[in-house]
Amino acid sequence: MSAVIDPHGHAHGHGDHAHGEHHGAPAGWRRWVFATNHKDIGTLYLLFSFTMLMVGGVLALLIRAELFQPGLQVVNPELFNQFTTMHGLIMVFGAIMPAFVGFANWMIPLQIGASDMAFARMNNFSFWLLIPAALMLVGSFFMPGGAPAAGWTLYAPLTLQMGPSMDAGIFAMHIMGASSIMGSINIIVTILNMRAPGMTLMKMPMFCWTWLITAYLLIAVMPVLAGAITMTLTDRHFGTSFFSPAGGGDPVMYQHIFWFFGHPEVYIMILPAFGIISQIVPAFSRKRLFGYASMVYATSSIAILSFIVWAHHMFTTGMPLTGQLFFMYATMLIAVPTAVKIFNWIATMWQGSMTFETPMLFAVGFIFVFTMGGFTGLILAIAPIDTQLQDTYYVVAHFHYVLVAGSLYAMFAGYYYWAPKWTGVMYNETRGKIHFWWSLISFNVTFFPMHFLGLAGMPRRYADYPMQFADFNAVASVGAFAFGLAQVYFFLFVVLPTMMGKGEKASQKPWEAAEGLEWEVPSPAPFHTFENPPKLNAAANKVIG
User: Fold this and answer.
1) How far is the C-alpha of 484 from the C-alpha of 4, rounded, in Å?
2) Best exposed site among 21, 209, 285, 309 by fewest CB in 10 Å?
């Protein structure tokens, strides 16, 4: 019998102590730098994304500080454009996407009864790639000429005129794209190959379904973004003219390529949110999710349709009327599966025995405010109306209703719902409710007036504006600072105490009607779970034996 020396210098025989060296968590900095455990990597992703949320939030507040009054107060227009560009890039690639990957890392193995993610070392690599990318992105402010100022969409010909920071930005986005693709491969392989025996695809929790579909979307569109920014790079340095009319190129072609990535991308940022809401609403309504199969099909439909609507971002580029009609109707069509989901959530709550703990408050808040964002999207889908509203604050209001009140609220809901399982302690319910109401009110104070500003014709990405827009802008700026402060409150008074283990101890299943395998392991979830595949009941939501 051969002997194995474990990290502590003790020898184990292979037969008697096969897993001796794996017991307990590795300690110190090595645990995090060399992390291969899905829970640790999930925690790293969540902490990283919250840091980036704060950085992007500070940029947003600088934008709102400038727009508090007409005239130029705080920054010059060039720096203002850098702020708008970097706010968008940091929030999309640094805050929202990594946060959902963090949720996926934590919850997917727990929900399907797997011991870990399929490729543990690739999982570590895909996280650590984000750090240099983020440093490069944020560091571009300190390069000659400042950060990129071409809008987060990086439209040509502006990108061809930017300073060296544009190259740093392009490189950073390549690295983040590689990270996303690796994360997606990991999620797909894990879900398809590592489910516990008896958990068929149609018995999986909705969160796993939405992430499976999202991962396929990511693999499909990330290379498209890579292509667009690589062509930008060669235009800038290697004498090509993909987007330069002087050399026979076409700047509008860039928009087509970008939005072919960009539109599925917005669904990448909302589908995991749908999954989280689909876990929480049934738990606090004490009913099974209404129309599970229709939810799965609706999610798949949204993913497929997201590939044929990209040019609704381009109604004012001079496309033929036939093209406008196609993209208008295709965009309206995508509202149907989305409405199916909202109908199903409401039907789940209907006649349920509902209670409103913080996760449910955020879930209901999500449904309400996301629906408003959906309706303004439907309005923008109408080509003749969009011609008037394109590039105004109406568009800003629309996508913040979808991305802040959509993606971000769902993440807050997911945090309050699952944090007891992660940390082993309950968050403070009163503080959670304060965070919810403070966020909901200040969010609407910030972004609701922007609909009126847009309808009145105020263009976005402008550092200055005429006097008639002053009042609504002042209201929006005050709301924005209140909203930002609410997230600082959340971190200091909700997240930190639970991370430090302060609060009442969480039971294995803190929510009465919560279903799923994640509630079958102790709180906090042990370092290793489901090392032997669990035996499941017929519904695949409980462990038997």
Assistant:
1) 53
2) 21
Judge whether 292 counts as a catalytic residue.
Answer: no
Give the containing element (helix H, strand E) for 386.
Answer: helix 383-389
Task: Based on the residue annotation, tell me whether 460 is a catalytic residue of this protein.
Answer: yes
pLDDT of 540: 86
Nearest to 172 by CA among 200, 204, 130: 130
- Active site residue: 299, 338, 348, 498, which one? 338
Any idea which residue has 């929030």 for tokens? Answer: 91
- Overall pTM surpassing 0.85 (yes/no): yes
Q: Which residue carries 């947003």 as its tokens?
A: 60
Residue matched to tokens 């568009």: 395
Q: CB burial class (10 A; 0-12, 13-18, 19+) of residue 166?
A: buried
pLDDT in tens, 238-286: 999 999 999 999 999 999 999 999 999 999 999 999 999 999 999 999 9
Task: Rounding to the nearest 10 degrees, give the CA dihedral for residues 270, 276, 277, 283.
Answer: 170
List the beta bridge partners of residue 3.
Answer: 13
pLDDT at 250: 97
Whether 78 contacts 463, CB under 8 Å:
no
Specify the pLDDT at position 270. Answer: 97
Q: Which residues pair with 505 in a beta bridge?
A: 425
CA distance 100 to 270: 9
Q: Does the annotation mark 180 as catalytic?
A: yes
CA dist 533 → 64, 116, 197, 471, 525 (Å): 52, 11, 7, 60, 16
Gap between the Cα atoms of 499 and 165, Å rounded? 37
Catalytic hit among 140, 165, 179, 376:
179
- DSSP readout, 481-542? HHHHHHHHHHIIIIIHHHHTT-SSBPPSS-STT--SGGGGS-SSPPSS--SSPPPB-TTSSS
Catalytic residue among 45, 259, 267, 422: 267
Q: Which residue ranges in the chain fall short of pLDDT 70? A: 1-24, 545
Calpha distance 508→420 (Å, rounded): 9
- The helix/strand/coil state of 425 is strand
Q: For residue 8, what is the DSSP state?
A: T
Amino acid letter for position 156? A
pLDDT at 23: 60
Q: What is the pLDDT of residues 21-68, one digit of tens each?
A: 456 678 899 999 999 999 999 999 999 999 999 999 999 999 999 999
> Which one of 106, 152, 345, 422 is the catalytic residue?
152
Q: Which residues of 283-303 are buried (b: 16+ CB within 10 A; e: fewer)?
A: bbbebebbbbebbbebbebbb
**Structure-block tokens of residue 479:** 């709301």
Q: Is residue 235 annotated as a catalytic residue, yes or no?
A: no
